[in-house]
Design goal:
The protein has 376 residues and is an alpha/beta fold. The protein is built from 19 helices and twelve strands.
Length: 376
């Protein structure tokens, strides 16, 4: 291990518990924050989390602090790993804003689509003046599950995970810290790349919606990817993926196709998406959601599909398959995900051209000094 880091993990769900335990087991000093104390009281009583790794070995991650108070969680920490559903990003930003200090790094694991943009906008609206860096990962580093009140399991780590800071000029600084934590993180050109290289948007909502009857009749008693991905459902995923790739291209971004991503992240190959997904050992054993009231819909539809589709509409891309999934999810949950989702306004992108958005994510300002001088 490299340098020991002081890290706060925000969120004690599947990913947060696994990450906190994994980092503590590595020897880092880890604080774990969760807004609801009753979700972490057992962890606090035990002083940490039992963790089972992908090779079958087990360990125990001793945590420095376990708390439901954000101010306490952020004390004496340099790296803040936010591991909550994207629906919680706004609330986390508001809670963090009064307590952040210069030099701290915030990483959204993952940002889904537009996460860093929305997080930074909320910090600004909340009056945060601390000089902090907000970054986002394209996806969660590992497939994991919570197996008990103070237990977690990691099924498989991805080989690499792209990451970008906002603005992109700060990405090297973030990766310099992360190399001692998770060297799997690699630089992405900017947050447009991490946001549109969002495979959760493609895999999670559609598979949940298309397997809705099976999920509700069995309580999720089937393997989500091994059994839920069939030749027909995979063709829907392929159509959604083409729309995602086209939206990215309209913004000047070359993203990986789902097939390319599976090959790079999991070394899973195939002539079709169906074959590649079934050849991914990391998906084996992952069960379907027990209910449709699950983050695969209430997170990935409004915070992944909606912002991608919004960008598509803004720049003239036909996103009819995404629109169909968003509308079906809205019917199933009885809510308007187009309205509740991560819109252009929430990302601070209303009225911006492709060039201005690119400049914003690269430098932190949508307009350069010449533009500002001409306007003034």
């Amino acid at each position: 291990m490299g340098e020991k880091r002081q890290i706060t993990v925000v969120g004690a769900g599947h990913g947060g518990k696994a990450m906190a335990a994994d980092l503590a087991y590595q020897g880092h000093e880890v604080n774990l924050f969760n807004r609801s104390w009753h979700h972490i009281d057992t962890i606090a009583a035990r002083g940490g989390i039992e963790i089972k790794f992908e090779d079958g070995t087990q360990g125990f991650g001793n945590l420095r602090k376990v708390t439901s108070e954000m101010e306490e969680a952020l004390e004496d920490t340099e790296l803040i790993m936010v591991v909550v559903p994207a629906s919680g990003h706004r609330d986390v930003a508001r809670m963090c804003a009064p307590h952040l200090k210069d030099g701290q790094i915030i990483v959204l694991n993952p940002g889904r689509t537009g996460g860093a943009l929305e997080f930074r906008k909320v910090l600004q609206e909340s009056g945060c003046t601390a000089d902090v860096i907000v970054a986002e990962a394209a996806t969660l580093l590992f497939a994991s599950r919570s197996t008990g009140p103070a237990e977690a399991r990691i099924f498989r780590r991805k080989n690499t995970v792209p990451l970008a800071a906002l603005p992109a000029t700060q990405t090297p600084k973030v990766l310099e810290v992360l190399k001692d934590v998770y060297p799997q993180f690699i630089p992405a050109p900017n947050v447009l790349h991490t946001s549109t290289n969002n495979l959760g948007a493609i895999f999670h909502p559609a598979l949940s919606i298309l397997n809705a009857g099976w999920i509700e009749s069995t309580g999720g008693a089937f393997q989500f990817y091994m059994e839920g991905v069939t030749p027909s459902t995979s063709r829907v995923l392929e159509r959604l993926d083409r729309e995602r790739v086209t939206v990215a291209a309209a913004m000047g971004v070359r993203v990986q196709t789902s097939m390319e991503w599976l090959a790079g992240a999991y070394s899973a190959y195939g002539d079709t998406l169906y074959e590649a997904m079934h050849r991914n050992p990391g998906y084996k054993g992952i069960m379907a959601p027990a209910t449709l009231r699950h983050r695969y819909i209430f997170e990935d539809v409004p915070y992944s599909l909606v912002p991608i589709a919004e960008l598509g509409r803004r720049f003239g891309v036909d996103v009819w398959a995404m629109d169909a999934m968003i509308r079906l999810a809205s019917v199933i949950h009885g809510t308007d995900y187009w309205h509740r989702g991560r819109t252009l306004e929430r990302m601070g992108l209303v009225g911006l051209s492709v060039m201005e958005i690119t400049r914003l994510v690269e430098t932190g300002n949508a307009r350069d000094e010449r533009d500002i001088a001409e306007m003034g």
